[in-house]
Amino acid sequence: MPRVEAPPPPHRRVIDPAVVEPAHDQQSPSPPPTPGPHPQYQAPPYQAPPYQAPPPSSYQAAVPRWRVNVGNPFGYLCARLFAFAIDVVLISAVATSLAYSMIAFNPITGLPTNSQRGFDATFALGVAVALVYVWVAEAAFGTTIGKLALGLHVYAVRGGPVGLGRAFLRSLLRPIDALAIGALLALLPAHRRLGDLAGGTVVARRAWRGFGPAAGWALVLIVAGIPFILAGAPRTFASIVAFGEFMPGLFARLLLLPHTIATHLPAGARW
Predict the structure, then answer these.
(1) Measuring CA to CA, which residue among 200, 146, 190 is closest to residue 168?
(2) pLDDT value, residue 114
């Protein structure tokens, strides 16, 4: 009878513990948060920003410049009158002296400049040049040689440069202001004559600290010396002699001008 052998024992599988991955713990998801009362929102306390003044308008910006340190009102009025006199006398005298020295016959009237009527016409031309100078200088620079010498300046009330239009209105109403009206208005607190009111300007003192008046008087001397430079000393001295010779007759004509006009009016138009 054949010999029966027992079957071999089953092969056991050896598992390396380093290879075995640990199983992840199955964590149950956290429950959603239960709805509850939300905390009430509290706004931070309001803090007002610091106050900032609005930017001044052009009118307000102009006010501090001309509202005014006029000092004595009568002194201020005299300064304005004297400044205008300096401008007219200086420029008209220089223009007349140059015309008398360099032109033998007046180009407008054709009269010789060394005659009374010729000198009158030449001097009238010089006064016209002076008035145009005052107009243009105030429009461009706000001042003239006379105003600069006395520390005065012309300001536009609404700010900015004076301009040709405002300066023209000031000059246009100057003859009316010369009839004591401008002087009375200039003494009022606004210190504005009719020409200033119409042109929107005002004349005020300016704090030049001595530089402006010194420059103004230096310009007076420089302008007064122009005839000596352009025409020469002999002709300039001859024109000065002509002023002494013909100016009394010119003043007499001016004083008799109202009577002359009245005599040339029709009989029905006379008072």
Answers:
(1) 200
(2) 86
